[in-house]
Design a protein that fits this description.
about 0% strand; about 180 residues; mainly alpha
């Protein structure tokens, strides 16, 4: 096999691994989202007794927080972050999670009740359902912007060399 053909085969193989990683992460996010939704919905049968969706334990806020903390810790090891940097980033992430948990406690239950009221009415109020969807998208956008702000703050803690090393590591996942 010529070197050029072998190089193309290797590139395709690396690209395939990148796609598998992306699809795997997307599926993991989907499963986590379903589990979170099931955990939040106390009206779904099976969730009341803590078994979760499909009779399994649901991923709660604490598990998601721990998973992200694990991934951040791995990234900080890759860039050889100092204890001071780790402490700063930990504080930034703790604050972001506390804010998100506050939203989950306050707004999610309210929205859930509104959806149930619309779904159980004699007739479906399509305008109310659409208004609720628009409001939910706005809230998601607002929380997403806040999480991006937390990411920016965390990245500001790292040096340029550390951010470059992190970018190399991330780039390596897709080759």
């Amino acid at each position: 096999m010529s070197q050029e053909v072998q190089s193309n085969v290797t590139r395709r193989s690396h690209r395939r691994h990148g796609y598998v990683l992306v699809v795997g992460l997307a599926l993991a996010a989907l499963v986590a989202g379903i589990a979170w939704a099931a955990r939040q919905s106390h009206d779904l049968q099976g969730c009341i007794d803590g078994k979760g969706l499909f009779g399994r334990s649901s991923m709660g806020h604490a598990m998601a927080r721990d998973f992200i903390a694990f991934k951040v810790d791995r990234a900080l090891k890759v860039v050889d972050a100092s204890e001071e940097q780790r402490d700063q980033i930990d504080g930034i992430l703790r604050q972001a999670f506390e804010e998100h948990a506050g939203y989950a406690r306050e707004k999610h239950g309210e929205m859930h009740e509104r959806v149930l009221a619309i779904l159980t009415a004699d007739t479906i109020d399509r305008e109310a359902l659409e208004a609720l969807r628009v409001e939910h998208v706005r809230q998601i956008d607002r929380r997403s912007r806040r999480m991006l702000g937390s990411l920016e703050q965390a990245l500001d803690v790292l040096t340029l060399a550390q951010r470059q090393r992190l970018a190399e590591q991330i780039h390596g996942y897709f080759e």
